[in-house]
Amino acid sequence: MEVVVVERPREGVALVRINRPEARNALNGEVRQGLAGAFTDLARDPEVRAIVLTGNEEAFAAGADIKAMAEAGAVEMMLREAHRLWAPIAACPKPVIAAVNGYALGGGCELAMHADIIIAGEGAQFGQPEIRVGIMPGAGGTQRLTRAVGKFKAMMMLLTGKPISAREADAMGLVSSVVPDGEVLETALTLAETIAGMPPLAARQIKEVVLAGADAPLEAALMLERKAFQLLFDSEDQKEGMRAFIEKRRPAYQGR
Ligand code: HXC
């Protein structure tokens, strides 16, 4: 059984599914290799315009595999270079939607936060419980979470390790929307299909500028936006989009 399954359920949409149900989709080396490989391939594939990342009904992912690191030392953890396996997900130029049912804990919550949009089921739980096993988040949990929800909500989650419900996550801005558990994947796929119908160069520039701009001073970030905005006027899709509007027809985007 593959621990990471890649499917093409809709035109322009790839579905990446973590498939290690016996361990609540805990992220062991094999899962991380699988995710890194999948995102590397999908980034290059011109047929793919949006990616949905999901787990199963019980767990999106219950974190890094505790059994695989319980006896490890600091040097061993360093030599594992796990951050290299997160990089293809973080650097994915295409829109990524996390479809979250069940547990999104520790590395699982961090994985969800690598996405651009998070659709959560009503029963989903988000948390950074690392402190309860003597460690701390190591894949962006102290940084992406704080940027998403602010210091005081983040500190509460990080210092207590207590999970929060999907509704709480929604209220604090950690998810994009909450839907009934049974509708999470369908909602995410429909959204991905909508985004896959958008001009891919514009989607790519929006993602790049939002992410890069968040860590830059406002003036520099606004300049990034301006340059990207201007660049799109050299794309065929900009001409197509605007002409289609004026001619009152549906645009057909080519990604050029
Ligand atoms: C390894 C895990 C696991 C994990 C669950 N399992 N989470 N194995 N690592 N993170 C395994 C259990 O050992 C058990 O295996 C099986 O999955 C089912 O789990 P149960 O606990 O029996 O299920 P349940 O009662 O439904 O509870 C689910 C749970 C709980 C609430 C998700 O399993 C849990 O608290 N898991 C740990 C969550 C956590 O602390 N995550 C942070 C990890 S540190 P057996 O063999 O007994 O059937 C981390 C650091 C990130 O993420 C650093 C950067 C990557």
Outline the structure in words.
The protein is an alpha/beta fold and 256 residues long. The protein has two domains: 4-196, 2-enoyl-CoA Hydratase, Chain A, domain 1 (Alpha-Beta Complex); 200-247, Lyase 2-enoyl-coa Hydratase, Chain  A, domain 2 (Orthogonal Bundle), CATH 1.10.12. The protein is 45% helix and 16% strand. The strands form two sheets. The chain has a six-stranded mixed β-sheet with strand order 1-2-3-5-7-10, with helices on both faces. The protein is globular. The mean pLDDT is 98. InterPro entries: ClpP/crotonase-like_dom_sf (IPR029045), Enoyl-CoA_hyd/isom_CS (IPR018376), Enoyl-CoA_hydra/iso (IPR001753), Enoyl-CoA_hydra_C (IPR014748). Belongs to the enoyl-CoA hydratase/isomerase family. One of its GO terms (biological process) is fatty acid beta-oxidation. GO terms for molecular function: hydro-lyase activity. Keywords: Lyase.
